[in-house]
Amino acid sequence: GAVVSQHPSWVICKSGTSVKIECRSLDFQATTMFWYRQFPKQSLMLMATSNEGSKATYEQGVEKDKFLINHASLTLSTLTVTSAHPEDSSFYICSARDAGPSSYNSPLHFGNGTRLTVT
Amino acid sequence: QQQVKQSPQSLIVQKGGISIINCAYENTAFDYFPWYQQFPGKGPALLIAIRPDVSEKKEGRFTISFNKSAKQFSLHIMDSQPGDSATYFCAASVATGTYKYIFGTGTRLKVLA
Predict the structure, then answer these.
(1) Which one of A105, B10, B14, B103 is most buried, by most CB atoms within 10 A?
(2) What's the rounded mean pLDDT across residues B75-84?
């Protein structure tokens, strides 16, 4: 089945530093990837849609200068949390769809998430 | 109109019982309805999904019932097991364009041994 790999699984950083999270589709190509944020015991909040070779589309209220997204290839998207602060501490999850010929019926596949703690 | 309402927020079921989680939507453009299962500290995993051209889909112990006129769909877990204890999210999307998913608020299921 389709596998989405996310790295790192957890990271602790100091306030003011930047953190990069990688999301890779291991066995399929993904023209579009999605980045979500999840607070404890809450639903998934879509942050942005990452498009291969073009700028990401951010949801309302998400600071694009704070959360930099780069989708450099069909299998890799990165989320960089810049100048992280304690309120950025959260669970970040990426997802991707197979962009192949049968993509109409293909669902979103999620990575295992990254737990970010900013001290 | 983009919301997906999910209930109940939490559910406790005895082992062997039936777990039922309900979702409702407003946007009639939605045409793909997946259910995801999430364990603590993990990303959501696709459980089962349905399109509005069928009223029911069954995969093993998991069944989706879909009522297009009422704009409602539900997940039934038959013979619930302690290993099913997790958070379940319904979602809805339009199967064109970016396929952006709108998620429900989640249901925390606990199956008692």
Answers:
(1) B103
(2) 98
A34 to B46: CB separation less than 8 angstroms, yes or no: no
B99 in contact with chain A, both atoms CB, cutoff 8 A: yes
Tell me the two tokens of residue B4: 């997906």
CA distance B79 to chain A (A): 25
CA dist., res. A65 & res. A76, Å (int): 20
Residue B84 dihedral angles phi and psi, to the nearest 5°: -85, -10
Instruction: Please compute the mean of the pLDDT values over residues A75-82 and round it to a whole number.
Output: 96
pLDDT, one tens digit per residue, over A18-54 is 999 999 999 888 888 999 999 988 999 999 998 888 8
B56 to chain A, closest Cα gap in Å: 17
> Could you tell me which of B44, B33, B108 has the C-alpha nearest to residue B66?
B33
Residue B96 has pLDDT above 80, yes or no: no
CA dist A48 and B57 (Å) reads 31
Q: What's the token pair of residue B103?
A: 């998620």
Distance CA A20, CA A78 (A): 7
Q: Which residue has the tokens 């299998």?
A: A75
User: Is the distance from CB of A93 to CB of A111 less than 8 angstroms?
Assistant: yes
Mean local confidence (pLDDT), B33-48 = 95
Cβ B103 vs Cβ B5: under 8 Å: no
